[in-house]
Amino acid sequence: MIEEPQNARSQRTRDAILGATFALLVEGGVASVTMAEVADRAGCSRRALYLHFASRAEILVAMIGYADRRFGLEAYVAPVLEAEGPVERLRALGTFLGAYHTKLAPLLRAVAAERETDEAARAAWEAAMAGWRGNAARIVAELEAEELLHPRFEDPEDAVDLMYSLMSVDLLRVLVDERGWSPEKYGAHMAETFVALLVADAARPHKKPVATPARRRPGGR
Predict the structure, then answer these.
(1) Distance set, CA 134 to CA 70, 139, 155, 170 (Å)
(2) CA-CA distances (angstroms) from residue 39 to 45, 59, 109?
(3) What are the tens digits of pLDDT across the range 43-71?
(4) Domains observed in the chain
(5) pTM of the predicted protein model
(6) What angle separates helix 102-114 from helix 6-28, to the nearest 10 degrees?
(7) d(CA 171, CA 103)
(8) Is residue 52 within 8 Å of 17, Cβ to Cβ?
(9) φ and ψ of 55, to 5 deg
(10) Any alpha helices (H) in the chain, and if so which ranges?
């Protein structure tokens, strides 16, 4: 029998650890993620776990890239990149938030909780948030360049701040977890809210009210 290359075995163990961590986050939140529970769920020894990750926070940081691979980030973000013009890009971004950020919610909350006490988690969180704000800044700059930005924003940075704040994990938690909005409903309303707030009235396409699915019961999945 041909022996499997060590690096392939190592990668499988690493992926099993990250997959186990994500499952625990979904089931019980960050409190359920202990090194012992992760090792047990991943089917590896604690020694093997510590060979890959020195701490729980280190696992959570690594999970950001893992989640993007697991959920296929590129396919979700493609409509945003390929949208024709900034107004449609705003709508595509809102839809993206509903489709993708709702999947990442358990991980995002876990990293947010860890950042208060762990430097690596804080750095990962700040990098992720800088990316979110950067995306908002690029779309606002595109709106401004095409004279589509609503005139209420004398300072375009205010528009960036508002857009970035609407992308927050806290807002997602309130609407999806507490109020029971479906990801589709959340994404549809975010798409139209971005346009209503940021695009000049004269340039705003007139659309029928958003039709969204019935609300789920709070806490439902």
Answers:
(1) 24, 9, 16, 19
(2) 6, 12, 21
(3) 999 999 999 999 888 888 888 888 888 88
(4) 6-54 (1.10.10.60), 72-203 (1.10.357.10)
(5) 0.76
(6) 90
(7) 15
(8) yes
(9) -155, 170
(10) 6-28, 35-42, 46-52, 56-71, 73-82, 86-96, 102-114, 119-145, 156-166, 169-172, 183-198
